[in-house]
Every structure is written in structure tokens, then in C-alpha cells.
Amino acid sequence: MTKFVLQRLLSALPTLLLVSAFVFTLVHLTPTDPVAQILGEGAPAADKDALRDQMGLSRPIFEQYIDWLGGAVTGDLGNSLYTSVPVSESISTGIGITLSLAIAGMALALLAGVPLGVLGALRPGTLADRLLTTVVALGLAVPSFWLGLLLVLVFAVNLGWLPVVGYTPITEDPGAWVTGMILPAIALGSHTAAVIARQTRSAMIDALESPYVTTLLARGIRKRKIVLRYAIKNAMVPVLAVIAIQMSVLVAASFVIERIFAVPGLGTMLIDSVVRADYPVLQGSIVLVAVIVLLVNLGADLLYGVINPKVRPQ
């Protein structure tokens, strides 16, 4: 297993290199000029050129990328063009908030999606199954940002049960942190819950129709024991692939949810850097998201081996 992990990490390096090169080039080709953003459009051309030379933006893109890559290997992602704060320091503050929101959304999605999917598989064609299909369809159809706005209107503005916007660090007030994360997590995890429920139902139906289930039933083993001990375990193998993909989707979708609920995570910082053309922050944030996606996929592959020994690397 250790050899497998090392192989996957090494194979991810070319992907990260290509992603970083593509993003670096694309970011520097955007029409927004950070020098004009800092000095203003009406600033003298000589002042703009001087500042551009000072920030190293007048050099060829390839040279800038090589310098950035050399620093990134050692953990130095450069400094913000506006605040001069190290990018690694800014990212370390925002990534924890974004990941906590994504994990909370995934936890709610699993708590809702897996039981609903199992229930629908155990009673296919019944009223409960039809209700599940309807709920799943609604969950897939409703956009997360629209649901977030609706939740704010109902539970925060009209009922006043939860805070409208804002974020309280868990180290300052755990209770306020939990209440502040409820609405963003629901808005973020609803679509994922529907996806997981649909996949779990399909995988469970296939598992319950397998020959080993028929054999166990013929031996007099209770169906509840078969479902809990064997069927769910086998059904989780394809569901894990969906969970890995959806976790990556949640990290990206959290950027929009953070904006709606004024959560100062990586998404808020990323959007601000796009508006201001803060190249180092934008580049470092996107590459970090790519690293998270690769790590999530690696974690899913490892869980495959834990759940199903047949897929373990030899």
C-alpha cells in the first residue's frame, strides 16, 4: 500500500506541473492590469512602467513562471501585489475555513443521502421510493446559491433563528461557529445529498440482487443482517467514487456559498484576487485547489482497498 501511495503521488506531479503552467499563463493573459488597479487608470505611463518593473511583471511570462515555480517548490508562493502579505500565509487562513465548510456540507450529505438511498433500495416501487425519487430530483434541480438565498430569507431574516451572514472562528466561540455554519452547509450539501442518495439506491439494488444475497437468505440469515453487514459494504465501493468527485465539487461550490454568507474563506479571497488581478494569490489558490482534488482522489482509492480487498494493489 505504501508503494501504491508513493506511485500515485509521483504520478500527480506532472499533473500539478501542467495545471500550474496553464493557470499561470492564463492568469497573466487576463485583460485586467494590476498596475492600473493599484495606481489608477489615469496614472502617468512612466509611473506604471516603474511599478511594473518593480513587481517583475515586465519580464517574459516564462521567466516569471520559472521564478514562481522555484519558490513554490520550497513553499514560497510569493507575496500579494496589494497587501505584500505572503500568499502562503493568506491561503493558510482561508483554506481551513473553506475545508470546514466543505466537510460540513459532505457530512450532511452523507447523513441524508446514504440512509435515503438504502431505504429506497429496500422498498423499490413503493410510496417511500417514489417520494425519495421526487426529493432527489428537487435536490438535483435546485441550484446551491438559490437555496442559500432562500435559507437566509426564511431562517435568518423572517424567523431570526440563525445569523444572516458572517463567520465566527471555532476558537473564539464554538456555539456561534456551529450556528453560523448550519445554513451554508445545508445550501452546499443538498445537491450532493441527492447525488449520493441516487447512487446509493442504484448500488444497493445491484447488491441485493447478487447471488450471495440469495444464498444467505436461503441459509436463514436475516435480511437486516445481510443488508448491514454485506450489502451496504459492497454497495459503498461505487458510491465512494461519487463521494470523491462530489468532495471536489463541494470545494469549488463553497466559493459561491462563501460569497453569499460572507464567509472569509479561500473562495472569497480567490474572487477578490480575480477582481484585482492579484496574480500570486490567484495562482497559489488555484494550485492549492488542484492539490486538494488530487489528495481527495487518492484518499478514495485507499478507501477502495479498505472496503474491498479485491481492488487492493498487488
Dominant shape: globular
Distance N terminus to C terminus?
A: 8 Å
Number of helices: 12
Task: Report the helical percentage.
Answer: over 70%
How much of the sequence lies in strands comes to under 5%
Counting DSSP E segments of at least 2 residues, the number of strands comes to 0
Radius of gyration: 24 Å
Oligomer, anyone? single chain
**SSE pattern, N- to C-terminal:** HHHHHHHHHHHH
Low-confidence stretches: none
How does the helix and strand content classify structurally? mainly alpha
Major beta sheet, specifics?
none
What value does the average pLDDT take?
Answer: 81
Could you describe the 3D structure shown?
This protein is mainly alpha-helical and 314 residues long. It is built from 12 helices and no strands. Helix 11 packs antiparallel against helix 12. The longest helix is centred in the last third of the chain and has 39 residues. The termini are close together. The mean pLDDT is 81.
A few lines on this structure:
This protein has 314 residues and is an all-alpha fold. The protein has helices at 2-28, 34-39, 45-54, 61-73, 87-122, 127-141, 144-158, 174-208, 211-218, 223-261, 266-276, 279-307. It contains twelve helices and no strands.
Layout of helices and strands, plus pairs?
Layout: H1 2-28, H2 34-39, H3 45-54, H4 61-73, H5 87-122, H6 127-141, H7 144-158, H8 174-208, H9 211-218, H10 223-261, H11 266-276, H12 279-307
Helix pairs in contact: 1-4, 1-12, 5-6, 5-8, 5-10, 5-11, 5-12, 6-8, 7-8, 7-10, 8-10, 10-11, 10-12, 11-12
